[in-house]
Design a protein that fits this description.
163 residues; alpha+beta; two-stranded antiparallel ribbon
Amino acid sequence: MGKVHNNVKVEMKRKMLEKVSGLKESVVSKIRFSEVDSMAIVWHGNYIHFFEDAREAFGEKYGIGYMDMYNSGYVAPLVSIHCDYKQQLRYGERVRTEITWVDTPAAKLIFRYELYNDQTNTLVATGESTQVFLSVKDQQLCLNLPPFFEEWKQKYVQSSDDV
């Protein structure tokens, strides 16, 4: 019981240090035939693709895309991804993926997602992903914020606090 209690305390402390920022982006996509199963319902694994599309758009908007990281000497692989399914999406509908960056003192990127049926504004899924930083040179895990990310946070954290 003590170990479970300690894990809960660690998770609560981590959540207290995180702060949902004002940095957001939204992407709308039409559900394609290749994304649905034989019942014309979006296959569950494709929701993760919608998350990826939103991360790409966020990176492009805020100057922290995958190539920006790579050109700074880092990559950011996913280490955790979670999706809670609430409603179905069907062939021909439009999905709106809203992504929000979560500020944390740790050397990682955390994003939260909300997927909506764009026609009805119905929430269809929520999720979260975590990425860590690795040095391109030696593939070592960064325990401290990479310099480019410190600069990025200085530029955007203050401005998102003003939003």
